[in-house]
């Protein structure tokens, strides 16, 4: 198969769809790999590193798309990139379509087969291609939250862990999944007063056992969420409904009760965000303030630690890329129902029901 790796073009996005080591796996298996010049330059993977393992360097993204049968990316394609997709193409990347109807409609129009990292599953019912970036984002959320709590950043002027005689910051984490767990690990390590909110009593029990009473766990009722907003210095939104838009847990009215200079970090912003006042920001302009509360809603948080993120993502995606290259999209999905769960768009239809329902678009089951 011919596989293309274009350069990512979102603001301050330095990750790359395939490392040279990943490319080597494919070229050794007899596949052709086309890499856009400079695709890995942001994390010190020069063109020569790719040519050394058998890749061919092409000067423009248009040429990469034209030469390839499968496109491997990190972030969702922008509308002008979608214009280069054809029905013969397989696109393998993060899509997050439930929060982006224009992208969904453009992908439908392209006729391409579009497999989303974030809905591929495994035998345990988890999301193995979302997990590494969720780990990164959860850990980063605490770092950026602590930074923006500093007074010179416009924050309340609170040290996350406090000092002897001065109470630590109160950190509330909405969602006890992968991002929430990793955020809690970082916040606990810094000495914060941490509470995790979730609607799964089973998950809350697991978290309670894992942290051995170093955190508090609370069932995420509406009243509990409202109290958390009123009392917290840092809230991290990590709620995930696979493929679907994130629920809006915090309203603007609730925000008015929050302490001035407190911080919200919306890890779920790729799926539309879990705060009513959230809108996507970029690494070049990451925060804004509503009702005196700082909002950090960067839609590609892991891009800030692009080298770590690229290696972590490639570790997870490479086995699926190899399978797609060997058997083709249809053959690979027939053989692997977990990969098939990643299919979001094919033959002009949305093939993931949660996305179709959220966007009110035509749905057709893969079968």
Automatic annotation (TrEMBL):
GO BP annotations listed = L-alanine catabolic process
User: What EC number is given for this enzyme?
Assistant: 1.4.1.1
Q: Which residues cross the membrane?
A: none
Q: Which domain of life is it from?
A: Bacteria
Active site, UniProt feature: 96 (proton donor/acceptor), 270 (proton donor/acceptor)
Under the heading Gene3D superfamilies, the entry gives: NAD(P)-binding Rossmann-like Domain
Which molecular-function annotations from GO does this UniProt entry contain? Answer: alanine dehydrogenase activity; nucleotide binding
Q: Which residues bind NAD(+)?
A: 134, 198, 203, 239-240, 267-270, 298-301
Question: What residue ranges carry the coiled-coil annotation?
Answer: none
Stretches assigned to the Alanine dehydrogenase/pyridine nucleotide transhydrogenase N-terminal domain: 4-137
Residues that, per the record, bind substrate? 15, 75
Q: Name one GO cellular component term.
A: plasma membrane
Enumerate the Pfam families for this protein.
Answer: AlaDh_PNT_C (PF01262), AlaDh_PNT_N (PF05222)
- SMART domains for this protein: AlaDh_PNT_C, AlaDh_PNT_N
Q: Quote the InterPro entries the UniProt record gives.
A: Ala_DH, AlaDH/PNT_N, AlaDH/PNT_NAD(H)-bd, NAD(P)-bd_dom_sf
Q: Which UniProt keywords apply?
A: NAD, Nucleotide-binding, Oxidoreductase
Give me the reactions it catalyses: L-alanine + NAD(+) + H2O = pyruvate + NH4(+) + NADH + H(+)
Domain Alanine dehydrogenase/pyridine nucleotide transhydrogenase NAD(H)-binding intervals: 149-297
Q: Which family does it belong to?
A: Belongs to the AlaDH/PNT family.
Q: What is this protein called?
A: Alanine dehydrogenase
User: Which organism is this entry from?
Assistant: Sphingosinicella soli
Taxonomic classification: Bacteria, Pseudomonadati, Pseudomonadota, Alphaproteobacteria, Sphingomonadales
């Amino acid at each position: 198969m011919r596989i293309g790796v274009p350069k990512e073009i979102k603001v301050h996005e330095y990750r790359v769809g395939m490392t040279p080591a990943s490319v080597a796996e494919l070229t050794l298996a007899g596949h052709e790999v086309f890499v856009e010049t400079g695709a890995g330059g942001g994390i010190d993977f020069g063109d020569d590193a790719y040519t050394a393992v058998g890749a061919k360097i092409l000067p423009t993204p248009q040429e990469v798309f034209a030469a390839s049968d499968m496109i491997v990316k990190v972030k969702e394609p922008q509308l002008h990139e979608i214009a280069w997709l054809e029905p013969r193409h397989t696109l393998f990347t993060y899509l997050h379509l439930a929060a982006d109807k224009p992208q969904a409609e453009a992908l439908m129009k392209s006729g391409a087969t579009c497999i989303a990292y974030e809905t591929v599953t495994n035998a345990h019912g988890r999301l193995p291609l979302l997990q590494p970036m969720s780990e990164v984002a959860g850990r980063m959320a605490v770092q950026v939250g602590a930074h923006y709590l500093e007074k010179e950043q416009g924050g309340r002027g609170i040290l996350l862990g406090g000092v002897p005689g001065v109470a630590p910051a109160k950190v509330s984490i909405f969602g006890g999944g992968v991002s929430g767990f990793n955020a809690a690990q970082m916040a606990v390590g810094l000495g914060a007063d941490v509470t995790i909110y979730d609607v799964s009593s089973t998950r809350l029990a697991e978290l309670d056992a894992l942290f051995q009473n170093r955190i508090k766990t609370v069932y995420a009722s509406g009243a509990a969420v409202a109290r958390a907003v009123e009392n917290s210095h840092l809230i991290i939104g990590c709620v995930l409904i696979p493929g679907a838009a994130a629920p809006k847990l915090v309203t603007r009215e609730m925000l008015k009760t929050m302490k001035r200079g407190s911080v919200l970090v919306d890890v779920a912003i790729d799926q539309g965000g879990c705060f009513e006042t959230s809108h996507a920001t970029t690494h070049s302009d990451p925060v804004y303030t509503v009702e005196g509360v700082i909002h950090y809603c960067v839609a590609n948080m892991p891009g800030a630690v692009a080298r770590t993120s690229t290696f972590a993502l490639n570790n997870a995606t490479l086995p699926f890329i190899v399978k797609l290259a060997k058997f083709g999209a249809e053959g690979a999905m027939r053989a692997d129902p977990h990969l098939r769960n990643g299919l979001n768009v094919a033959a002009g239809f949305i093939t993931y029901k949660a996305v179709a329902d959220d966007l009110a678009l035509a749905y057709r089951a893969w079968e």
